[in-house]
């Protein structure tokens, strides 16, 4: 559990102070973890460049440099600016005593090392970087070698995932004490590389409560009794599939069956199809706004819904129902333009899950997608608060936020899932897990997790992210759910 905990920045800073008061030298531990990381990967005559900044991130790097020098590695130290923190000044003194002479800058023909250790800035980066610092980072990024970022890539805000104009593009990040969410989303997703946690053996009593969790996946509510039948696994009513977008509703319906929903009604606004020949288990019907809703445990509205009058009527109807509800795609866009329906949503007695991508979230918050991506956690929290519901903010590093619960961050999935229809599949998965009795927060997290795992598995098997269709994803999701049961 501890390994998956996400702590807020203020909590991490409080821990730092408390550890210092108790005489725990976390910097030495971070340095040892860094040196161990290197020893496990590089032979002892490798050339390493250690770039150290003025603060404690630089201190971690300097102490690691000392350990690596003592272990026989050939180490160059780049210190563009004098060390300012007490601990990093002490580290520098120890290096000088050991014969190390830091460089203030690198020659333009500096020979490429096997590894760059980036200890320029960590969680203390607090203002825009100067042109001089940007030039240093640009020069380091141009080195064609392994790049290990300590705590976070320098230039990246490890909480929001925002990169400054220059930012180290790491192949690996060794992060200390706890995971930081911004390593996984926005610019972090492309700058942090492979992420590992070094917990630094911090005593349990010092650990703050988790603000969130990484990759929480509890599929145990889906376990089945031998004496069960289709009625035991819930009935779902999915509404969407307007003219030209019928496929979206079918994809969601098929995914719901693949995720174990007992029965799935698909009401399509197009109405031209009465059976899905590739999935005859689905119960298809024309979504006449005047029809009574089929008996169901869960509703989902959005895949291929469109924004015409019947679509608006259906949104009004499902919001008025007392069933758990998933809203996606055009259901979210319609909601964004109707304040009355937003009030109805906030007052719903049953749980509602919104599954926006950043552009849909931006419409709901009346801001830009860049604003949403600029601080994903804050955007998801605003939506959850405003509409009193669960929000699954899609994109690299999907976030699941429900008021009063630790937020969840899912790191599975990648560009293989950036394809048409994958959002519809996700809607079907979530709705199916709700229909089987899971609560909204956990169902959203598990659905995002297995969907992402399916994408990762494809990418690994295919050797790249291209070519995974939404249709082919559902069966992989079934397999992952069964594995996680
Ligand atoms: N949180 C903890 O308990 C631990 C922290 N450790 C390390 O300490 C780091 C945090 O150390 P600090 O708080 O000293 O922060 P940093 O070392 O990340 O940066 C702070 C320093 O950079 C300067 N600075 C900030 N923004 C700048 C900018 N744009 N341009 C130029 N200078 C800038 C500040 O004036 C300060 O000197 C962590 O990231 C981690 O690497 C580790 O030693 C392990 C324990
Ligand atoms: K760093």
Automatic annotation (TrEMBL):
Catalytic activity as recorded in UniProt: (6S)-NADPHX + ADP = AMP + phosphate + NADPH + H(+); (6R)-NADPHX = (6S)-NADPHX; (6S)-NADHX + ADP = AMP + phosphate + NADH + H(+); (6R)-NADHX = (6S)-NADHX
Alphabetical GO biological process terms: metabolite repair; nicotinamide nucleotide metabolic process
Alphabetically ordered keywords of this record: ATP-binding, Isomerase, Kinase, Lyase, Metal-binding, Multifunctional enzyme, NAD, NADP, Nucleotide-binding, Potassium, Transferase
Binding site for (6S)-NADPHX: 56-60, 122-128, 151, 248, 304, 357, 424
GO molecular function, one term: metal ion binding
Sequence similarity: In the N-terminal section; belongs to the NnrE/AIBP family. Belongs to the NnrD/CARKD family.
Subunit and interaction comment: Homotetramer.
Function comment: Bifunctional enzyme that catalyzes the epimerization of the S- and R-forms of NAD(P)HX and the dehydration of the S-form of NAD(P)HX at the expense of ADP, which is converted to AMP. This allows the repair of both epimers of NAD(P)HX, a damaged form of NAD(P)H that is a result of enzymatic or heat-dependent hydration.
Protein name: Bifunctional NAD(P)H-hydrate repair enzyme
UniProt organism field: Aquitalea magnusonii
Gene expressing this chain: nnrD
């Amino acid at each position: 559990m501890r390994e998956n905990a996400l702590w807020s920045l203020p909590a991490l800073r409080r821990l730092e102070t408390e550890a210092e008061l108790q005489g725990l030298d976390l910097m030495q531990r971070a340095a040892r973890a860094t040196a161990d990381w290197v020893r496990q990967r590089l032979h002892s005559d490798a050339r390493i460049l250690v770039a150290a900044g003025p603060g404690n991130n630089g201190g971690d790097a300097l102490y690691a440099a000392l350990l690596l020098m003592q272990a026989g590695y050939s180490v160059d130290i780049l210190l563009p600016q004098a060390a300012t923190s007490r601990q990093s000044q002490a580290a520098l003194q120890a290096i000088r005593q050991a014969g190390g002479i830091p460089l203030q800058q690198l020659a333009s023909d500096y020979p490429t090392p096997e590894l760059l250790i980036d200890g320029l800035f960590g969680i203390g980066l607090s203002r825009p970087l100067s042109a001089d610092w940007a030039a240093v980072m640009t020069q380091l990024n141009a080195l064609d070698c392994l790049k290990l970022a300590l705590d976070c890539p320098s230039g990246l805000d490890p909480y929001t995932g925002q990169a400054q104009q220059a930012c180290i593009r790491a192949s690996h990040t060794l992060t200390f004490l706890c995971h930081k969410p911004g390593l996984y989303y926005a610019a972090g997703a492309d700058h942090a590389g492979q992420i590992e946690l070094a917990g630094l053996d911090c005593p349990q009593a010092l650990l703050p409560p988790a603000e969130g969790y990484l990759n929480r996946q509890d599929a145990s509510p889906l376990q089945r009794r031998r004496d069960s039948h289709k009625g035991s696994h819930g009935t779902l009513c999915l509404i969407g599939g307007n003219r030209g977008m019928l496929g979206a509703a079918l994809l969601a319906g098929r995914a719901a069956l693949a995720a174990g929903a007992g029965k799935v009604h698909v009401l399509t606004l197009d109405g031209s199809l009465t059976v899905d020949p590739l999935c005859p288990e689905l119960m298809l019907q024309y979504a006449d706004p005047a029809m009574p809703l089929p008996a169901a445990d869960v509703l989902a509205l959005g895949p291929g819904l469109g924004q015409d009058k019947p679509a608006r009527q259906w949104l009004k109807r499902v919001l008025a129902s007392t069933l758990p509800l998933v809203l996606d795609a055009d259901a979210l866009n319609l909601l964004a333009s109707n304040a009355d329906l937003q009030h109805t949503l906030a007052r719903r007695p049953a749980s509602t899950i919104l599954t926006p991508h950043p552009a849909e979230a931006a419409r709901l918050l009346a801001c830009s997608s860049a604003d949403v991506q600029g601080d994903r956690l804050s955007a998801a929290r605003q939506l959850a608060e405003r509409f009193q519901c669960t929000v699954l903010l899609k994109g690299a590093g999907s976030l699941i936020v429900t008021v009063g619960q630790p937020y969840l961050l899912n790191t599975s999935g990648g560009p293989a899932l950036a394809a048409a229809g994958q959002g519809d599949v996700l809607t079907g998965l979530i709705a199916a897990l709700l229909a089987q009795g899971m609560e909204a927060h956990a169902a959203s997290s598990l659905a995002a997790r297995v969907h992402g795992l399916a994408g990762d598995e494809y990418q690994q098997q295919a050797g790249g992210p291209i070519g995974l269709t939404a249709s082919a994803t559902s069966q992989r999701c079934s397999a992952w759910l069964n594995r996680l049961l």
